[in-house]
Amino acid sequence: MSVKEKNLAYDISLFEERKYIDKKKDNILILPKKEVKINKKNKLRTMFVAIVAFSFSVAIMGAILFNQAQLAEYTDKTNQLSKQLEECKSENTQLQMKIKERFSPEEVENYATSNLYMKKTSPSQVEYFSLSSGDKAELTQSGRSTFIDKILAIVGIR
After folding, report:
1. How far apart, in whole angstroms, are the C-alpha atoms of residue 157 and residue 141?
2. Mind listing the pLDDT tens digit for each residue in 94-107?
3. What is the pTM of this model?
4. How many other C-beta atoms can be found within 10 angstroms of the C-beta atom of residue 149?
């Protein structure tokens, strides 16, 4: 080593840790073109999935609302028909009462005597007759017999 070299100061900055600060221009980060294409594809996929999910949820909500509207409509119709049934039952009961009142035996008798000039039967108007105990009715078979009847007669079943 030479004497000149011994007096030289050592550069210690070579051994210090360096902190590198990347300077961004206008906050724009430049990516390689491959990564940009991949990011665009991922964004499109994400948007597509979001649109499909949104459409699906809107369709489900629409179906639920439609079913609720139909259910409410059917409930109203059922209530109206129940009211109509009760009214018909009430009207039927009233008409049954009128029929019983109008066609009671007393009313029929009054109508027959006053409007049709009918009278009750007297015992002199009743005529009794009797049947002789010897009268009978018999059913006879026709004189013709079929081929099957003849076979059954020969076998002994008839």
Report:
1. 17
2. 999 998 888 888 88
3. 0.39
4. 13
